[in-house]
Amino acid sequence: MTRAITVSSSTEQHAPNPLVHAASVLPGLALCVALAGLSYAAAAWPALNAVVPMSALTVGILLGVTLRLCVPLPATVEPGIRWTLHYLLRAGIVLLGLRLVLQDMLSVGLAGLALLLLAVASTITLAVIVGRRLGLPDTLSVLVGCGTGICGASAVVAVDGVIKAREQDVACAIAMVTVFGTIAMFAYPAIAHGLGLSVSTYSVWAGGSIHEVAQAVAAGFAFDEAAGVQASLYKLSRVAMLVPVCAVLAFWWRRRAGAQEDQGRRAPFPLFVLLFVLVVGVNSFVSMPDVLHDALVGVDSGLLAAAMVAMGLQTRLVSVLRLGWRPLALGLGVAVWISALALGGALFIG
């Protein structure tokens, strides 16, 4: 009897207290939310947009990396940073489906859809092949390939939730797609005018190859107002491909994990990917009040921004710099590939 009481008391003593856990999470969570708000303010700053337009996600990870590099953070914020990165990131990816409408893919036509499918699939495949030749981990190569082929930082974040890459891989991939996407945003209009491209050809090229949604739209309107609208449709069609890409990667990564586990055990399929697909379906076929939809999209933006801040705070810049020139070569290689492929396809379609 005495022994039973002792065991029971020991169990109660070590039982987790939800209030204590919540209190340990709050400081880090508050820090991430505050920096996410600051990232939105910085991204909307006209002076910054005039030089290098960046999304709040990109600004958020830059703020996190900079703060981690320059300021010694107290240990009390670490649990909340990890909690934000794990839970808010997955919630943000699920709600990201509210920005995708599968009907957008039909508006570009069968030829345009075939070109976009080829561009996305070949870019991701090429990234893995070239990454292995350069001695880079598959996690980094897949993130760079998806960020380049689909939709920049948002794709990197979503795919990271599937493959669970290292923090330095995510930070490096976002840096690559931001740098080369920004270069493309400014270079495409000048090159197009020099080549004498038509509005329709330029729209396919810009929407089919520029990394971020904001970058593709800005490059489109820099050429012509009609090009801005058409480039947006092609870009959104690429964004919609995030759904099948995440599903395929989830199965591929599950098989990789299963092959590495002892006794045939396999990693579980990530539930948030299924929820993401479900939300895309609801957004595509169910009518939702605009006020509710806009509110949920706003919540999603905040969740992803806070998660990006947490990603930056978890990143040690020294680990990223140790990767050297190889990620830069990978990012440049796949950016040139998708640009050349999209331009060739645009000339053929046009």
Molecular structure report:
- By secondary structure, this protein is mainly α.
- It has 17 helices and no strands.
- The radius of gyration is 22 Å and the shape is globular.
- Helix 7 (109-133) runs antiparallel to helix 17 and helix 9 (167-195) packs parallel to helix 11.
- Residues 1-16 and 262-267 have low confidence and may be disordered.
- It has one domain (25-349).
Number of strands: 0
Tally of individual domains: 1
Find the structural class using helix and strand composition. Answer: mainly alpha
What's the overall average pLDDT, rounded?
A: 82
Radius of gyration, in Å, reads 22 Å
Spans where pLDDT lies below 50 across 5 or more residues:
1-16, 262-267
* Number of distinct helices: 17
Strand percentage: under 5%
Approximate helicity band:
over 70%
Which word captures the global form?
A: globular
N- to C-terminal separation? 85 Å
Order of helices and strands: HHHHHHHHHHHHHHHHH
Main sheet specs? none
Keywords: Cell membrane, Membrane, Transmembrane, Transmembrane helix
Protein name: Sulfate exporter family transporter
Family: Belongs to the UPF0324 family.
Membrane topology: Multi-pass membrane protein
Detail the topology: elements first, then pairings:
Elements: H1 2-14, H2 18-43, H3 46-51, H4 56-70, H5 78-96, H6 103-106, H7 109-133, H8 138-163, H9 167-195, H10 199-209, H11 213-223, H12 225-240, H13 242-260, H14 271-285, H15 290-314, H16 317-321, H17 326-349
